Amino acid sequence: MTFDCIIIGGGVAGLSAGLRLAEAGRKTLIMASGQSALHFSSGSVDLLDVPGDPRAALPAFIGAHPDHPYAKVGADHIIASLQALQAHCAAEGLILQHGERNHQRITPIGTLKATWLSPDSCAIAGEAAQPDTLLLATPEGFRDFHPALAAANLARQPGFTHCRILTGELRLPQLAEFSRNPHEFRSADIARLCDRHDLLADLAAEISRLTHQAQGPCRHVILPACLTLGRVDERLHELEKRTGCTIREVATMPPSLIGMRMQEALRRRFVALGGTFLTSERVLGARCIGDRVQGLYSQNGEDLLFEAEHFILASGSFFSRGLESRLRGIREPIFGADVHGSSERDRWADQRLFGRHPFLGFGVKTDERLRVLREGLPLANLYGAGSVLAHYDPVQEGSGSGVAIATGWQAAGHILSEAL
Ligand SMILES: Cc1cc2nc3c(=O)[nH]c(=O)nc-3n(C[C@H](O)[C@H](O)[C@H](O)COP(=O)(O)OP(=O)(O)OC[C@H]3O[C@@H](n4cnc5c(N)ncnc54)[C@H](O)[C@@H]3O)c2cc1C
């Protein structure tokens, strides 16, 4: 099978690259072995956790971190890559919004997290005053969102101290089938049920029951994201019409529907642009001649070579097995690429859970054009993108999806400029 470009990895980095290549008319294949980090993420896109406008902070940040993947993309291209992602999501009905500075997304445990882009269905603490009364409600028996815990934490956040935060359970007999097995009572299970049966009337009645019990006006409601795997804006709009309330959602504990919706929207868009997306297709190894990759072998047919002119390694970090931790150190399993790491295992992690963990900065080394290095030299037609890359700390910097989107877009740009 021969393509112009093959991308290993179907997360946001691989999709960002694939969308740019497919849009430019390149015959592009994405091979993904399984789920991506998006299935577990909030679905918001972090760019850089700084006070003020993170776009304006990029040049100074890049100047101070010359090895950082952002430095290999450049501030203007980072912003262009995020705009491209927004446009692709919008084409699939997923509206991502931002302001002139980071906004605070409300997390499932009621803390606030600075981020740059969020779907417009998300509960955020905007700059406007918070409402006097807020209701956090969840389906009765659902374990992946705890309104009482979220309310207790939220009440301590700046901007919420004056806010009366109520909690409640939505009694929906249709969900009784899940109570037998808590493992089947996850956000995706509820969403599938909502996608099969129209529960909106019952849900609206339950929300109204709780807001009427509020002793005083209650017009703002937050629900866990569990209403649909598809377009949620139509459902929220309908619920708002029926209840007279503003209704927003928070990401639940994983699996996270908000992230899954983004994954699915980008995959649909990629396919609509002519791309081929293969799932359950784990790449096991590569055939290289000199400094060029000729093709890839996958688990589904070791005698079949997937050939292309250009390749992008977007296989993720330890979480997705793009990097593997072995007794002797860290390795990149497909190409045996050069990896930035440390042989002293006891220095990989900080003692404190929320400390700075060096292992988060481990990853594949690349040259200035994001070409993957092996034995100190770049492979001529293999680019790296996303969380497989070295020299950044998504947690401390608040840069997770931002780096993935920017480097995927930039790697595709290098391929397109080479082909000219
Ligand atoms: C739990 C979690 C929550 C996060 N939350 C946020 C958040 O709220 N906001 C934010 O901005 N960032 C967040 N991040 C960080 C951000 O989501 C990731 O940095 C980003 O999604 C990484 O994207 P990626 O495409 O590089 O890698 P991944 O999403 O990990 O994708 C890697 C892909 O490669 C595939 N793959 C791996 N090996 C092979 C192989 N051999 N053959 C074929 N395919 C292979 C995997 O199946 C997967 O499809 C979170 C990360 C995690 C882990």
TrEMBL record:
Coiled coil ranges: none
UniProt GO cellular component terms: glycerol-3-phosphate dehydrogenase (FAD) complex
Keywords, ordered alphabetically: Flavoprotein, FMN, Oxidoreductase
GO molecular function terms noted in the UniProt entry: glycerol-3-phosphate dehydrogenase (quinone) activity
EC number: 1.1.5.3
FAD-dependent oxidoreductase 2 FAD-binding domain boundaries: 4-403
One Pfam family recorded for the sequence: FAD_binding_2
Alphabetical list of InterPro entries matching this protein: FAD-dep_OxRdtase_2_FAD-bd (IPR003953), FAD/NAD-bd_sf (IPR036188), G3P_DH_GlpB_su (IPR009158)
Xref: NCBIfam families: glycerol3P_GlpB, PRK05329.1-2, PRK05329.1-3
Protein name: Glycerol-3-phosphate dehydrogenase subunit GlpB
